[in-house]
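Here is one chain, start to finish.
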Amino acid sequence: MFEYIEKVLHSNIECSDYEKSEGLPLYIAGAFDLFNLRIGNNKMLIAVPHADINLATLRKQQRRIEALTGMHCVLYLNNLTYYARDKMIEEGIPFVWENRQLYIPFLGMVLSSASRSELPYCAKISFLTQKLLFTAIYQQWDKVNVTTAAEKLGVSKMSVSRCFDEIEAFGIQQLEVKGRTRLLSCGDKKVFWEEIQPILVDPVINSYALRQDLKGEHALSGISALSRYSMLADDPFPTYGFTKKDIGSINISRSALVPPGEIPGCIVQKVGYWIEFGDGTKMDPLSAALSISEEDKRDPRVEKAIEEMLEKYVW
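Its structure:
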């Protein structure tokens, strides 16, 4: 199994089974094969997971193994996304990516033997991919392929294929990859939501505070949408959401904007995507939760309203 380590280090290594695995918690002993590894005079543990594990779990379990054994623990991984790899290097988590890369910072070793995959690298997800993931949650997708997903979203298969590329690159566990076939399932909605949290983006591109409220009926977003989904009181002025395509119909010239410090007639938000939800009069709940500013989220009433909204309309 460890021929790759010998190959990239150009030296012999000594490896043996870790004999104290039975004394470890079941969630560790049952998830990893552990081995003693000696490189020169340096001893460490190699942890080989039985199955693919998401980054958050790998991070916690690697640290837990080190704490329980008192030894450096190097993860030995067959499958790894470039996003996960870069985060592990950033956080100093030792790993061996079989036939690709070896990163053992406590020995000062960073060696690579493979070129970068064609999967994209991105720190955050695109608007269309976020829309796809949220739609998967709302519709409780089960083994949905690229063709079916494209039909559900009303976009091209090529666009959805790029979305699946992003999802695969981020290592989202709900994407099943079998050869050239990729299937997306939602599973537990709340678990899915929590897993994708780190890569999600605020759907709001820009906000404009206008002197006058808009005439007619318009879809609500931000705090106004949240107030309709919960018992939270709305701001004294409404907040509306418009896609990039539709916002051109609104006058957002300098003369239409309210001076800083004054109460606006309304807030207009330009958003990167729109998901039809419920009666269509307001932004979907998951996007609405992300559109709330960090300052507003510090208000316990807002935090409670978000939890109430998600519990009632999503989970």
